[in-house]
Design the sequence.
């Protein structure tokens, strides 16, 4: 099989998130500088994409609310 570590979440909440973050920090210690910089860049771009998606969803909700008020008033 190999020496792959498979993490199966048996519980949810803050404890699982803390353990997952700690595991990621342990992995980050083993990356070289170029890989670390690339990972940080990817994380930043990913957060930017998520923020845009939420912003567009909020905008669509506001437009739908305005339309509903106008259409049913």
Sequence:
């Amino acid at each position: 099989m190999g020496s792959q570590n498979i993490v199966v979440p048996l519980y949810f909440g803050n404890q699982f998130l803390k353990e997952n973050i700690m595991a990621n920090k342990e992995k980050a210690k083993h990356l070289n500088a170029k890989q670390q910089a690339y990972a940080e860049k990817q994380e930043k771009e990913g957060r930017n994409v998520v923020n845009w998606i939420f912003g567009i969803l909020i905008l669509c909700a506001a437009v739908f609310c305005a339309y509903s008020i106008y259409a049913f008033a």
